[in-house]
Design a protein that fits this description.
about 0% strand; single chain; about 280 residues
Length: about 280
């Protein structure tokens, strides 16, 4: 059951990432974040009411609020990076978010094992290869790499905060609901400021109602992935769940290859692959 739900997490996260990046190519990234997270918040609110999650309210929810502040920044950077592409490089690099919990552990006095040290080294090598200069053709934009690394830092911070926000399944739903409500508030405020400064909130032609199902899918797939990961971690070793769930970039890369016909140069593919291997080493260490 652990493997089944963890692999479902990979599938859902991978497809959500692909959809978010694709939508950002047609709709402003902030709008994608706000709309998709609003839909997710509505669904989570219904789940909280149905499961009686309100009884889990307490001081721990401040961790969820903090995650909600960081989350929109990470999502915005990530979607912009995916829009710039190639997704086959961006998505694996974003899995470096696992380094954040490792860093938290170091700060608290833990010492990394040999596999974790190897993972850090391999992951850094992957970043250099994925974004470095190429002998032929245009390299991956430095802005893309920077946005992806900021997103990874944000995602890792969110994971660490959410882990502290609840101790039960119903509490997790409440924490995720609070996080997404905060996401919408922060993202909405940023969108308002952007518009006041001359930015666009909507593409030409108005709100893309035809894309509403896709926006809903992105938000709901992210929520479902959090749920399946929680089930996987509760029914088996967290290490196994984390490793299998961290394979979601493979789904994003395959979707980009299948739907967008993306092709990576050998050195880019090698760099992205090393980043993913480094992530797996960190998770298993």
């Amino acid at each position: 059951m652990t493997a089944l739900f963890a692999l479902a997490t990979s599938l859902l996260w991978g497809l959500a990432d692909f959809g978010g990046g694709l939508l950002t190519r047609r709709t402003p990234a902030l709008t994608v974040v706000v709309v998709s997270q609003t839909i997710a918040a509505i669904v989570l609110g219904a789940i909280v009411v149905a499961t009686g999650g309100w009884s889990e309210a307490g001081p721990r929810l401040w961790f969820a609020v903090a995650a909600g502040v960081v989350g929109p920044v990470a999502l915005l950077c990530f979607y912009k990076a995916l829009a710039l592409g190639p997704m086959g490089v961006v998505s694996p690099l974003a899995t470096l978010s696992v380094a954040v919990p490792v860093g938290v552990g170091l700060f608290l006095g833990e010492r990394p094992g040999l596999l974790q040290v190897a993972g850090i080294a391999v992951a850094v090598a992957g970043v250099v290869l994925a974004g470095g200069a190429q002998l032929r053709g245009a390299p991956v934009q430095r802005r893309t790499i920077l946005l992806t690394l900021v997103a990874a830092l944000g995602f890792g911070t969110v994971f660490a905060l959410i882990a502290e926000a609840s101790t039960t399944v119903s509490g997790l739903f409440l924490a995720l609901f609070v996080q997404r409500v905060t996401n919408v508030a922060v993202g909405g405020a940023a969108l308002y400021v952007s518009v006041q400064r001359g930015g666009e909130a909507l593409p030409q032609g108005g709100f893309p109602w035809a894309l509403l199902p896709a926006l809903a899918f992105v938000g709901l797939a992210d929520v479902a992935a959090n749920g399946t990961y929680s089930v996987a971690a509760q029914h088996g070793p967290v290490t196994v769940a984390a490793v299998l769930a961290s394979l979601y970039p493979v789904v994003t890369a395959l979707a980009a290859r299948g739907f967008l016909s993306e092709r990576l140069r050998v050195v880019q593919a090698a760099g992205a692959g090393l980043a993913l291997v480094g992530t797996l080493l960190l998770a298993t260490g």
